[in-house]
């Protein structure tokens, strides 16, 4: 088992490949890996022009699936978790 440690400021976790994410049966990780793979395919100069529309459409769909997955996770976590991700409203001591 891997030893857990704190993440350093600015450090990012290892990105999984599509096959690694699928092997772990981690739906969110799979969607993120697909998003990265689709974006890379779209930016590839060798990408055939007829594939651009389908790749673009699928990239948008995957982005929506990630957003829906995260929204469902927020609902399951409860209102405190949702509020902790929200930006604070501007406040002034003169408002009292």
Overall description:
The protein has 4 helices and no strands. The chain is an all-alpha fold and 96 residues long. Helix 1 (18-24) runs antiparallel to helix 2 and helix 2 runs antiparallel to helix 3 (49-77).
Sketch the major β-sheet. none
How are helices and strands ordered from N to C? HHHH
Oligomer: single chain
Quote the average pLDDT: 85
Total number of helices: 4
**How does the overall form come out from the CA principal axes?**
extended
Q: What class do helices, strands and sheet pairing give? A: mainly alpha
Low-confidence stretches: none
Fraction of residues in β-strands: under 5%
N-C termini distance: 53 Å
The total of beta strands comes to: 0
Radius of gyration from the alpha-carbon trace, in angstroms? 19 Å
Give the helix level as a range of percent: 55-70%
Secondary-structure blueprint of this entry?
Layout: H1 18-24, H2 27-43, H3 49-77, H4 79-85
Helix pairs in contact: 1-2, 2-3
Task: Summarize it.
The chain is built from 4 helices and no strands. With 96 residues, it is mainly α.
